[in-house]
Amino acid sequence: MDENLLADVVSAALKAGADSAEAVGAQRAALGINVRMGELEEVEREESRDLGLRVFVGQRQATVSGSDISPEARAKLIERAVAMAKLAPEDPYATLAPKERLARGPFPDLDLYDPQEPSPESLEEVARAAEDAARANPKITNSDGGSASASSSHWRLVTSEGFSGVYQASAFSITASAIAGDGETMESGYDGRSARWRGDLPSAQSIGEEAGRRAAQRLGARKIDSTTAPVIFENRVAMSLISPLIGAIAGPSIARGTSFLKDKLNAQLFAKGVNIIDDPHKVRGLGSSPFDDEGVANRRWALIEDGVLTTWLMNTSSARQLGLETTGHASRGLAGAPGVSTTNLTVEPGAQSQAELIAEAGKGLLITSMFGPSLNGNTGDWSVGCSGFWFENGELAYPVAEITVAGNLIDIYGRLVPGSDLEIRGSANSPSLLVDGLAIAGR
């Protein structure tokens, strides 16, 4: 969206009675193809162009957004935003980011945009190849389909504090989902990858083959007795164990006093040697951006450094509430005030492969699928439904299902051992994680 248009919106908001304002312009184009059982099932095309406006009148703020950016519609949007702000309750922490914290150009080139625009026919070919490879497994009896997609986005932020920044990004993905059957039971398997550049994706065939293999491998899953044993979270699901950490160190949670980690800043939360990194400037990263969603200069953070929790994740509002400075983690859409989020989050790998973790643990549970997590945000008590494989004598023995694992996350984090099998699959990635003893609820 044109920089001058957004600057005009900000200027008009100030003239209409706002003390300060910021405008966001977002454009997106996407094309997705789904096939199932060898037949074209769905073609989705999206094109959007939207405008968001946040205004401040004293300590009151309001946000509005719309897809009509004609002069008449913009005038109504501005009028409505200022009127809403005048009626909003006062928020002593509401403000734009301080001028001295704003990012200044030239911004880093993060190589986020691949200009390729694949045709619907080429995406269909990829989706078919993924599904065909999954269905080629002799144990596959049905399919949830294969898909391929391509999208591009354009994001620009202009504020009355003098910030103006823009970046463009693309994304490409391939997925496959297969169902295996043996006449008595059915099990599903999935694989998928996304990347900023199309050439960074693995082959459709390899994704389909992995989906088929994972479904077939699950046949014959059984229940197990309740026990306490070592548990390994496979790298594909391991971030589900780490995501409650991110919510618990978010500035708004700390400011509300509703976090089980509210007293743990600068404490030894994990074992020595464990590092969790957030890096917004990772080249071609799926969470990368040259500045945060308030225009603040962002940077690489070691959130966990040698096991120690080093910081909260803060936007301007939560930082003011805590008497601290924003960490450049503001995240927002077109409507609503900014929240906080990570960018490219990585649990750094350890020294042992998953097979070596299994061998070291000897007997226990490898989790490959998780669903229905439950968390007490105040205490850290956590449980999750899961399925996977039981292992004995350091080797996988048989697939298992209908299990729940539970524990307190502070205790779990303190005993967590990262493996070496880190794979970059999204904007949050982890190697397999071993916890030496967890309560496992079975039959």
UniProtKB/TrEMBL annotation:
Organism from which the protein derives: Phenylobacterium haematophilum
Database matches in SUPFAM superfamilies: Putative modulator of DNA gyrase, PmbA/TldD
Family: Belongs to the peptidase U62 family.
Single GO cellular component term: cytosol
Entries under InterPro entries matching the protein: Metalloprtase-TldD/E_C, Metalloprtase-TldD/E_cen_dom, Metalloprtase-TldD/E_N, PmbA, TldD/PmbA_N, TldD/PmbA_sf
Biased segments, Basic and acidic residues type: 125-134
Name recorded for this polypeptide: PmbA protein
Lineage: superkingdom: Bacteria
